[in-house]
Amino acid sequence: MIAIILLAVVAIVLFGAGFALHLLWWVAIAALVVWLLGFLIRPGGQRWYYW
Questions:
Q1: How wide is the angle at C-alpha 3 spanned by C-alphas 10 and 17, nearest 5°?
Q2: What is the SS3 assignment for 28?
Q3: What pLDDT was estimated at residue 33?
Q4: Cβ proximity of 51 and 38 under 8 Å
Q5: How far is CA 15 from the centre of its chain?
Q6: pLDDT, tens digit, 9 for 90 and up, residues 1-51
Q7: Calpha distance 37→31 (Å, rounded)
Q8: Whole-angstrom Cα distance, residue 8 to residue 5?
Q9: Does this model's pTM top 0.70?
Q10: What is the end-to-end Cα distance of the chain in Å, rounded?
Q11: The predicted structure's pLDDT at residue 36
């Protein structure tokens, strides 16, 4: 019985981690697109960020 409970807990944790990593990949892709657009489209010939 304990083995089944541990297996269920591990499966839930791995599913949650997989979902979080999938979400982080989409966030990283969106950030890359925004960065590339800012790099290619420069307002007034200057950088669009200030760091």
A1: 0
A2: helix
A3: 92
A4: no
A5: 16
A6: 888 889 999 888 888 888 888 889 999 999 999 888 877 777 666 665 665
A7: 10
A8: 5
A9: no
A10: 56
A11: 85
